[in-house]
């Protein structure tokens, strides 16, 4: 998660956070939902956010600037040797870096007052939901109460979504097929996963073209 200029000196902060998504209306075409997460209270990111909010109580625990959350899929270097069409005919090819990612923008509310009932309820639900999702079981309440004193909660109202998909889609059919074969030929987990993403994209593209 990236937050702009939350520190007194204006420096950027970034943290890796597991999120839970809340959606009130699954049938809605416009609702984007809310992301819930938590951070260690002693992390530099947490301290910077608490410092900003503590200096202006009128913010009601909502950060002034929007936050950016990035979810990334597999990414990998693409060698020109994978191309079967462009390279033999022109030789004018360059290496690339292919990737897939989603970017979420929103306003962040921070639950950091450990004496607040609102903070306690938010963190209790966050920890229990994340634990059920990850372990399919619920932690003991005593452990949750201890843990809540050492973390802060983050709730982000999603206002914009963007997708980034750079998978050699600008290349010709032969080169795209060569990239798929090349990644599958690496015979490792990353190569297989990226090759499968290419294959799914090609299948999806063919279905759209035929409709």
TrEMBL record:
Q: Which SUPFAM superfamilies match?
A: FMN-binding split barrel
Coiled-coil positions are none
Chain ranges passing through the membrane: none
Record protein name field: Transcriptional regulator
Q: List the source organism.
A: Pleurotus eryngii (Boletus of the steppes)
């Amino acid at each position: 998660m990236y937050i702009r200029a939350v520190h007194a000196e204006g420096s950027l902060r970034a943290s890796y956070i597991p999120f839970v998504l809340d959606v009130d209306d699954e049938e809605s075409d416009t609702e984007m939902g809310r992301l819930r997460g938590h951070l260690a209270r002693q992390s530099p990111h947490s301290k910077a956010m608490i410092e900003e909010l503590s200096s202006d109580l009128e913010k009601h625990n909502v950060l002034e600037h929007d936050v950016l959350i990035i979810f990334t899929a597999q990414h990998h270097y693409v060698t020109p040797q994978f191309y079967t069409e462009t390279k033999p005919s022109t030789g004018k090819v360059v290496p690339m870096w292919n990737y897939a990612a989603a970017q979420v923008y929103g306003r962040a509310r921070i639950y950091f007052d450990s004496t607040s009932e609102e903070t306690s309820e938010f963190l209790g639900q966050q920890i229990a939901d994340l634990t059920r999702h990850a372990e399919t079981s619920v932690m003991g309440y005593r452990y949750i109460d201890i843990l809540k004193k050492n973390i802060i909660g983050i709730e982000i109202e999603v206002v914009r979504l963007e997708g980034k998909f750079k998978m050699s889609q600008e290349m010709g059919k032969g080169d795209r097929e060569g990239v798929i074969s090349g990644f599958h030929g690496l015979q490792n987990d990353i190569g297989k996963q990226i090759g499968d993403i290419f294959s799914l994209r090609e299948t999806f593209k063919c279905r759209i073209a035929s409709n």
